[in-house]
Specification:
The protein is mostly beta strands and 94 residues long. Helices cover 0% and strands 56% of the residues. It is built from no helices and nine strands.
Length: 94
């Protein structure tokens, strides 16, 4: 099970990335620590592809990806593609 989850939700014909952490605003970078596990919770009708640090994770509609383990420190950018939309997000690893 992942330490952290990011919900991917429909938003104005695209998607929004919402960290499931109290005090972290929707669309904001998720603060994590090295070795933490992060998953993406697909709350859309589309199959999603998450690309992070050279890894590709997929999530069917209304399911979650397998966990990504944070390996490096600093800003880790990722993309989320599905349903004809691509959005970008980031993890901030300390």
């Amino acid at each position: 099970m992942a330490d952290w989850s990011i919900s991917v939700v429909p938003s104005n014909g695209s998607m929004s990335l919402n960290p499931n952490v109290f005090g972290v605003a929707p669309g904001a970078a998720l603060p994590v620590q090295q070795k933490d596990l992060v998953s993406w919770n697909n709350q859309t009708e589309n199959i999603l592809t998450i690309t992070v640090a050279g890894q590709t994770l997929t999530a069917d509609s209304w399911s979650s990806t397998t966990a990504y383990q944070v390996q490096t420190l600093g800003t880790i950018s990722y993309t989320c593609e599905g349903g004809g939309s691509t959005v970008e997000g980031s993890l901030i690893a300390t």
